[in-house]
Write a structure and sequence with these properties.
Shape: rod-shaped
Strand content: under 5%
Number of strands: 0
Radius of gyration: 50 Å
Order of helices and strands: HHHHHHHHH
C-alpha cells in the first residue's frame, strides 16, 4: 500500500517520526485510515447475544466451589493447628478433660493470686507479726499488773515469761489465724474462739477478785492476751454474745474489774 510520496507506511512510532521530520507536510498512518495495514469496521450490533457464560458468572461458580472445598480443601488454620484438632477429635474425652483441667488450673491460679494479694508476705510471716503484736500486749499487761500491786518490776522475769509464751502462741496463731478453707471449718473455728473468749474472760474476772495478788500477777497477762485475741478472731455476731456473757458473769458474781 502506497503512501502520499510513494514510500512504505511507517511500521512503528520511530519510523513515523523520522518520516515526519523528512516530510513535514505528508500525512501519517494515523491520519489516513486507508493507509492502515488492517481493515477498520464497526461491530455487528444486530448479531444474537452469546450463549456462553460471562466472566462474572464463571467467577461466582468458582468461588462457590472453593467455599465447599472443591477442588481444593477449605481455607483454614495452619497445618499445626489442624493436626491439633485432629488429635483432639480422636481423643474425644481426653480433650474435654484437658479443657476442664485447664479451667481448673486457671481457677487455682486466680485463687493463688488472691491469696497473694490477701497475704503478700505469706501465712507464716503474717503469723509471726501477729504473734509479736500479742506478745507486746502480754508485756504491757505484765507491767500494768505489777504497777497495780505496787511491786518492783522484774524485767528479766517478764522477758523470760514472754520467751516461754512465744512458741506456744506462735503455734496457735499459725494454726488458727487466717481464713478457713471450708465453711464448716470456719464455723468450727468461730465456736472454738467463742468458748475460749467466754471462759478466759470469766476466769480472768474470778481470778482478779478472789485469788491472791501473786496468782493474779502470774495469770492475768496470759489470760488477758488470750481473751483479747479470741475476741479479735470472732465475728461481730459471735463476739457480742461472748462479751455479754462475761458481763453477766461479772454482774451475777458481784465482781469488780477495778
Amino acid at each position: 500500500m502506497s503512501h502520499g510520496d510513494g514510500s512504505k507506511p511507517p511500521r512503528n512510532r520511530k519510523e513515523r517520526r523520522r518520516q515526519q521530520r523528512q516530510n513535514p507536510t505528508s500525512t501519517t498512518t494515523g491520519d489516513d485510515p486507508s493507509s492502515l495495514p488492517f481493515k477498520l469496521a464497526q461491530p455487528d450490533r444486530d448479531a444474537p447475544a452469546p450463549t456462553g457464560k460471562s466472566l462474572f458468572q464463571l467467577a461466582d461458580e468458582r468461588e462457590h466451589l472453593l467455599s465447599q472445598g472443591k477442588p481444593f480443601a477449605k481455607p483454614g488454620p495452619p497445618p499445626s493447628t489442624q493436626r491439633g484438632k485432629k488429635s483432639a477429635n480422636v481423643g474425644g474425652d481426653a480433650a474435654v478433660s484437658e479443657e476442664k483441667e485447664s479451667e481448673q488450673g486457671k481457677g487455682n491460679e486466680l485463687e493463688h493470686k488472691k491469696e497473694e494479694v490477701d497475704e503478700p508476705i505469706g501465712h507464716f510471716a503474717s503469723s509471726v507479726f501477729f504473734t509479736i503484736t500479742l506478745l507486746m500486749l502480754h508485756f504491757t499487761l505484765d507491767v500494768l499488773v505489777h504497777h497495780q500491786y505496787r511491786q518492783e518490776i522484774g524485767w528479766g522475769m517478764i522477758l523470760w515469761r514472754i520467751g516461754m509464751a512465744s512458741p506456744v502462741l506462735l503455734g496457735l496463731v499459725y494454726a488458727l489465724h487466717g481464713e478457713a478453707s471450708t465453711p464448716t471449718l470456719a464455723l468450727a473455728t468461730q465456736f472454738f474462739f467463742f468458748a475460749v473468749s467466754t471462759l478466759s474472760g470469766c476466769y480472768l474476772v474470778r481470778a482478779a477478785n478472789e485469788e491472791a495478788y501473786f496468782a493474779v500477777m502470774k495469770r492475768a497477762p496470759p489470760l488477758g492476751t488470750l481473751w483479747v485475741w479470741s475476741v479479735i478472731e470472732l465475728k461481730l455476731e459471735y463476739a457480742l454474745p461472748s462479751l455479754m456473757m462475761v458481763g453477766a458473769y461479772l454482774w451475777y458474781g458481784e465482781y469488780s474489774m477495778i
